[in-house]
Design goal:
The structure is a single chain. This protein has 280 residues and is mainly alpha-helical. It contains nine helices and two strands. It has a single domain, classed as Four Helix Bundle (Hemerythrin (Met), subunit A). It is globular, with a radius of gyration of 29 Å. The N and C termini lie far apart (128 Å).
């Protein structure tokens, strides 16, 4: 009697468990392959840059950072277009950027032009890696106030300054006096990455909007210039983006002063004239 009654008491409990398990949505574990493949290719370019730099082939190592920059621009856009954004993809992209735009350019610039400086050289290179990691961590936790600008120089742009310089002049520097200017080349982008100076993000650029035909001609001229003189044109673009933030700051300050000057004049003319003092 007791043995026959036990299954009857257990059946409702087991059926309730089964119903609850059926109601719970099963979470699929995995990664979105399409944007992750671009991020993986980005990380591979950083690794290849380190490998070729250790071999002394700087002319081959430097362009890998440029390819990584293009892949880094594509993976985020593809993730947004295909609705495949995920927390894993965000963290994976940041770790890949530390390798491709932090460690790889630091190793490249040290072996190319800072090894004569000894400890000073590798300390400055490590400072660049630290600044790149801090910049990426701050970007992940910082809420975007104005999507048109980055707070601080982006890590791909800072790495492009170093890589384009090596690509333009791949002959390694072997003397101490020649290696000293490279310190500024490393420290200036490192400081700009952790600064709050605003750099254009170009996220507000609407490619779907119709443009004049002259824009297409300018793009064709740019492609011709990069194809015919890639070393100097790419270096010019990298340094132009670095200087663009300071040029925009100067232009904005000049406009503010120009707009304040007429207001001050108008405020001065609106005031009533003071009465003349009585004759003594």
């Amino acid at each position: 009697m007791i043995l026959d009654a036990e299954p009857n008491h257990r059946e409702p409990f087991l059926s309730r468990l089964n119903r609850r398990s059926e109601r719970r949505p099963r979470r699929r574990r995995g990664v979105f392959l399409l944007p992750s493949m671009f991020t993986l290719a980005n990380m591979f370019c950083g690794y290849a840059c380190v490998v070729y730099a250790t071999r002394g082939d700087y002319e081959t190592a430097a362009p890998f950072i440029g390819v990584a920059l293009v892949l880094d621009m594509l993976d985020g856009r593809i993730a947004r277009l295909t609705d495949t954004e995920s927390p894993f993809g965000l963290q994976f992209d940041s770790l890949a950027d530390v390798i491709s735009f932090g460690i790889a350019p630091a190793v490249l610039i040290f072996l190319w032009g800072m090894s004569p400086l000894g400890r000073l050289g590798w300390a400055a290179s490590f400072l660049f890696v630290t600044a790149a990691a801090m910049r990426l961590a701050r970007f992940n936790i910082q809420a975007a106030v104005d999507k048109r600008y980055f707070a601080g120089m982006p890590t791909p742009a800072a790495a492009a300054v170093l890589a384009s310089t090596v690509f333009a002049y791949p002959t390694p520097l072997t003397s101490y006096p020649a290696a000293l200017p490279v310190l500024a080349l490393v420290l200036v982008p490192a400081l700009l990455m952790v600064s709050t100076i605003r750099f254009r993000s170009f996220k507000d650029l609407d490619l779907a909007r119709p443009r004049p035909y002259t824009v297409l001609i300018l793009l064709a001229a740019g492609l011709v210039a990069i194809t015919s003189h890639p070393r100097w044109v790419l270096a010019l673009l990298a340094y132009a983006y670095l200087l663009s933030a300071f040029v925009e700051m100067a232009v904005n300050r000049f406009r503010r002063r120009g707009s304040l000057h007429p207001r001050l004049l108008a405020a001065g003319t609106d005031r009533p004239e003071a009465p003349a003092p009585p004759p003594s």
